[in-house]
Amino acid sequence: MADPYENQTPAPWLEGFDTYRAKELDPLLEEMDQSRQRALAKAKQRMMWVAPLVLLAAGLLWVFTQNPMFAVFAGFAGGGLGYAFVKAPFSEHNHLVKRELVTRLARFFDLNFELKPVVTPVGALRRLGLVSSYDRKSAEDRVYGVYEGVEIDLVELHLEQKRRSKNRTYYVTVFRGPVFVFSFPKRFNGRTIIKSDATSVGNWFTGVFSSGERVKLEDPEFERHFEVYGTDQVEARYLLTPSFMEALLGLRQSLKSGVQAAFDGGQLYITANNNQDRFESGGWSQDETMAQQVDRFVQELGVVFRIIDDLNLQSRTGL
How far apart are CA 74 and CA 55, in angstroms? Predict the structure, then answer.
């Protein structure tokens, strides 16, 4: 991840982290790796006898009912239940990871962890146009607390839309990824919305339905990836400092998604629709080790803290 602050003084919030990690996290990471290997072995063992059983049951239904469509349907249904049973060890492993690892990781930064949050900011995100309309929602992995007088709330959000075809109703994902919410003690004067850059047609529609006028900035790299609209042009330019813009670009690169943001009232919202869950075992394969996921999470927290430092500095100068 590109860190716009890498040449500055070492971050104060990381003081003592290497020692804490060696003592509290590294032994747990080794245990997590062993836990995943046990889950993988158990899942493979279950697959060895679940798959033949499902095929045998579908075949017997075909023979005794003489109804191939019913047998195929029952086979698919049984296969779905069987696959859920096969993957159950990974779910148990993921709960262990989140209950132990993420709780300890958040504790170092004086933050709290909640596995299944009840309240989410989805209403505000919809109102600001940062997420699409949805019919079903779920949330998990909430990390929250206070830093320098600013409340921070990070949550994994999953939104789905209902679709209907001739024979069935199903759901498709329209948003899945992290949401960052900052609640500042001082309200912003206007509303500033930062949307992912789209095609020229998409930008035109965004402009038509966005609150405020287009804000032109002098950073060509930022302008290449984002469209900014604001009801207070002066405040928008004041908020979008070079360091803040680099932070958003860094998050975009780290999260591999179209990051969007909005300043509204006393809150700053940042969303990233990257279709990923943080701190998941990955099932049969794993793109990132748990140690790599810890590193990425700490880097993202670093951007969060530095954004607060930057914006709080400006609020103290009379914004």
Answer: 10
Low-confidence ranges of the chain (pLDDT < 50): 1-8, 199-209, 282-284, 316-318
pLDDT tens digits along 223-249: 999 999 999 999 999 999 888 998 888
Which among 289, 257, 294, 253 has a CA at the least distance from the CA of 276?
Answer: 257
Query: pTM, whole model, 2 decimals?
Result: 0.76
Residue with tokens 């001739």: 166
291: exposed, middle or buried (Cβ count in 10 Å: 0-12, 13-18, 19+): middle
* Alpha carbon distance 70, 58 (integer Å): 9
Strands (E), the chain: 111-114, 136-147, 150-164, 169-183, 192-196, 213-214, 226-230, 259-264, 267-272
